[in-house]
Amino acid sequence: MKTISPQGILLYVIFLSFFNSFGQNKPERNLILIDKDWRFSFGHLSDTEKDFGHATGYFSYLAKTGFGDGPAAPGFDDRAWRKLDLPHDWVVEQPFSEKASFSHGFKAAGKGFPEKSIGWYRKKIEIPQSDLGRIISLKFDGVFRNSKVWFNGHFLGTEESGYNGFEYDVTAYINYGGENTIVVRADASMEEGWFYEGAGIYRHVYLQKTNPLHVIQNGTYVSSEIKNDTAEVTAEVTIENKGNYKGPLEIVQNIVDASGNQIATVSENATAPDFYKTAKYTSKVTVKNPLLWDIDSPNLYRLVTQIRQGDNILDQYETSFGIRTIRFDAEKGFFLNGKNIKLQGTNNHQDHAGLGTALPDELQYFRIQKLKEMGSNAYRCSHNPPTPELLEACDKLGMLVIDETRLMGINEYHLNDLKRMIERDRNHPSIFCWSVGNEEWNIEGNITGERITNVMQGFSKSIDPTRPVTVAISSGFKSGISSVVEIMGYNYLGNGDIDAHHNEFKQQPGMGTEEGSTFATRGVYFTDDAKHYQSAYDKKPRPSFYSIEEGWKFYAERPYLAGMFIWTGFDYRGEPTPYGWPSVTSYFGMMDVCGFPKDNVYYLKSWWGKDPVLHLLPHWNWAGREGKEIDVWAYSNCDEVELFLNKKSLGKKKMERLGHLEWKVKYQAGTLEAIGYKDGKKILSDVQKTTEIEENIKLTADKQILPHTDITVVTVELTDKKGLHVPNASDEIKFDVKGGKIIGTGNGNPTSLEKDKFLDEITLVPITNFQERKATTGDASTPLSANTEEGWKEAFKDRDYKNQAPSYAYRGQFDLKNNALTNIVSFFYKKIGLETTIFVNGTRVPASAEDPDKYILNSGILREGKNTIHIVAKPLQKLKEWDVMNTDPGIIQIITPSEPWRRKLFNGYAQLIVQSDGSGNDVVISASAKRLKTGVLTISPGKK
Question: What's the rounded Cα separation, in Å, for the pair 710 and 370?
Fold first, then answer.
């Protein structure tokens, strides 16, 4: 689903803005989101029958234009398929399996699961006759992976990578004034990464309409140079002529501030490029007293590019950008707008609890804001180009970004992916560095890696000379890539001598592109390998690795290092090191997969943030350990911290810079309190109290009012009778929503094998053993009156279409594994004749009111096991000798309603992602469990 960002600029239909001051004619550019109402079904990797007979025709879609077959054919009947909205990740919907991929989170899909590795998507759209003469294209932000796309049966192309955006021109194939069919086949049988990747159309899809003379996809490039109080903005635009335009053009570049005011403009004369050719034009625009983009004040501007011919605006294209300077210094680190800034970064993959990789736009803002609250100012896209909405969130919230391509190499596959990433993303002010590789162990330390890096680095500079290039290296810092890369990316202190490398390459700036890889289970303070628990105290994860505190001290104390990026900000699916099954998510994150903080968050907040911090750990519910010592830590940036147990002082300690404090405390139920002092004065306190048994369910919305969005994140927790949060609660909670729906749930437990989604199950059952016999009359009852086997034969075999019977009776069988009363069973008839009558187990079935070729089968006429269907119809006639007649009678669809949504709490917390139904009514969420008082949360949509 496409949802509206907190800033309210993304709409279901996006019409690029037009300012009256710029002209009187409406520009011919529309960008229409088409995420709603797709049909989906699994195909099969190797069984063509289970892949709906795709690519089995005499002429394949590669042999003849327009010969898409199976689901790729426009007339394919997809009525029985599941209906859904995009974005969609089919992997997150699957159960867990010990046989599935360790690195991808043990979900039963993709590699090793041929029946869940192919996904088909179909959508019908109408394009009006009035669009004739415009250029119409499909824009995909990302499909995982190896996607093939057809439009009205015409094959458009293949995109191998699941991380690239791509566009297809469909202008020549359109049925103007009528129905058009989009088909996508995604093949996720091969993994691109070694982490959870999901599968399907997991990013947005658009229909774009432009004038034949238009700005190309990602066709603007904005850079700026600041001198004193003035910015000279260079605006480069590439236009394409897919029409018959000739002669002079005017290219107008307008800069608009955040309030919508035009603050600068320039006009250039140009000439239309030749037919199907492109031309590039560059303009200089001066902005006086610019508001700079930085991490605290992320000021943005818009470049509004117009192509004019006379009084007509042929195209208008908007580009968001920021004005700022970036610079690396080999001795002093990184500078933003001339100010030395230490990079306080995290690495992150793109999945979230309950959603997989199909995140609503709001979740990008939610996650970036969580990182900002921790004190982070930088984000590394590990290890692929991100969805565009993540970069928009970083631009608007003030988060620096390393943008990373997927694979190193020097041929078209590698360089074209790199080119598309840079051209798509280079106008984002948040991006300060391109990464062209990560831990390429086969080439890191040799001449091959050096050669590839030189090519990719030079290639990047040819597209965007304003940003430096890095590679993240982990197998030693002595030769190969590390000797030639512009910005050295150190992955882990234990992998080499960073100081020695700097002394050898004194002109090479550097930063820690990965550090940490520490293990922690949120809310757990002891390691138990049998339970797959890792203590949340900050410790070395392995002998050659370092704790978060050790890593940050190393980088913070060396001015020549620009900063470091922790592995990782959030836990993610897959790579459950140091364990395996049944652990299904990583342990590395500073936050869990939901975004609930682990205790290391407060260490970072203490030394990365600006506000006073005091955090006491662990919780104080240790029944059964009375009198035994508990390790008590305090994270703080106060001068001193004093610890009290039940109002008795256990001593005041001085806080070491970049450190933490520890006490050994014999457990006694009650109140553990820490008081922080600054300049001798009490400024903060933090308390951990022993709680009573849980009694209440508490629901808290991340956004109580939703003025511009239909998504909210809900925290579920339990409290005792005094209202105290119970930190070790693990009850299972059931949920109900009115005015909306739950789209995902999680709890941050790395070993949880609970469902991520509760969806109706759709099963498609074929009609088998399909036979026919001739009838002497068209009367529907006559063929069923004789119960003999006489005359039955394989249906349609050797049919003489010139000498057909007046009517035919057909019979077949279908199997039902069960005949539950709650199931909804339907027969979707595919026309094999006229004046059709349907019988199931001898009972005549009427057509449904909604669809004359759909028959709803009541459980009263069905039985578990084999069922018989009879079809009586007059035959279809061939109009041409070569006509291919349908011989498929249809499909049985079984819908098994889902169970109610539910989730266990893990160490006190669970999370819901809720989407409103768009009606404008309140969203009411109720949560219930045995012994507990029901929790109710009402979310008001606010004024639109």
Answer: 19
User: Can you tell me the mean pLDDT for 812-838?
Assistant: 95
105-119, 506-520, 587-601, 691-705: which range is least confident on average? Answer: 691-705
Q: What is the pLDDT of residues 666-700, one digit of tens each?
A: 999 999 999 999 999 999 999 999 999 999 999 99
In this prediction the pTM is: 0.94
Residue 476 tokens read as: 């030693």
Q: Quick one: tokens of 34? A: 């088409």
**Burial of 195 from C-beta contacts in 10 A (0-12 / 13-18 / 19+):** buried
Angle at the Cα of 530 (from 524 to 531), degrees rounded to 5?
40
CA distances from 164 to 387, 401, 438, 465, 646 (A): 9, 18, 18, 22, 58
Tokens 């550019």, residue?
29
333-336 sheet: strands from edge to edge: 326-329, 333-336, 339-341
Q: In angstroms, rounded to a whole number, what is the distance separating the alpha carbons of residues 618 and 810?
A: 71
> Annotated catalytic residue: which of 159, 440, 450, 514?
514
User: CB 37: neighbour CB atoms within 10 A?
Assistant: 12
- In the residue annotation, 159 being an active-site residue is answered as no
State the amino acid at position 358 in one-letter form.
A
| Cα end-to-end distance, the chain, whole Å | 19
DSSP, residue by residue, 43-108: --SS-TTTTTTTT-SSS-TTTSTT---GGGSTT---TTSEEE-SS--SGGGSPB-TTS-TTTTSBS
From 439, 450, 642, 673, active-site residue: 439
**DSSP conformational letter for 160:** -
pLDDT tens digits, 392-439 = 999 999 999 999 999 999 999 999 999 999 999 999 999 999 999 999
Q: Are 519 and 578 in contact (CB under 8 A)?
A: yes
- The pLDDT of residue 27 is 62
* Backbone Cα Rg of the chain: 31
Kindly state the tokens that stand for 390.
């993540």
748, burial (CB in 10 Å: exposed 0-12, middle 13-18, buried 19+): buried
CA distances from 900 to 396, 523, 742 (A): 37, 27, 10
How far, in Å, are 3, 506, 738 from residue 914 at the CA level?
A: 12, 52, 10
Closest CA to 828 of 886, 785, 787, 885: 886
Catalytic site residue 629? no
d(CA 434, CA 701): 36
Between residues 302 and 25, the one the model is more confident about: 302
Asked if residue 72 lies in contact with residue 155, where contact means CB atoms within 8 angstroms, the answer is yes
pLDDT confidence of 787, banded at 50, 70, 90?
low
